[in-house]
Prior knowledge:
Blueprint: E1 2-9, H1 15-23, H2 27-35, E2 39-45, E3 50-57, H3 60-68, H4 71-80, H5 92-95
Antiparallel strand pairs: 1-3, 2-3
EC number: 5.1.3.32
Pfam family, one: rhaM
Enzyme class: isomerase
Amino acid sequence: MQRVCFLLKVRRDRIAEYRERHAAVWPEMCAALSATGWHNYSLFLRDDGLLVGYLETPDFEAARSAMEATDVNARWQAEMAPLFETLDGARPDEAMKPLTEVFHLA
């Protein structure tokens, strides 16, 4: 399993909305994530908008590509994009750049 961690930045004025939307993620979005290989997926949000994402998957690029091909992901990303800073025209899922793991205690 590949462990993947990434950072994004939620706009400070949209943090409450981001929390609300993630308190009620669409069931079809959760099903698509599971079906495409996103396991043990968590999001952590700091009060200043720093978002830390973590997931485990056999192949991150394959999981990402499989999600990108779903209709529900396109709809979710379109709704979420305005909540983020510095996407430079990319969707939030496209802006996820995995961090390099430097230590893991098994």
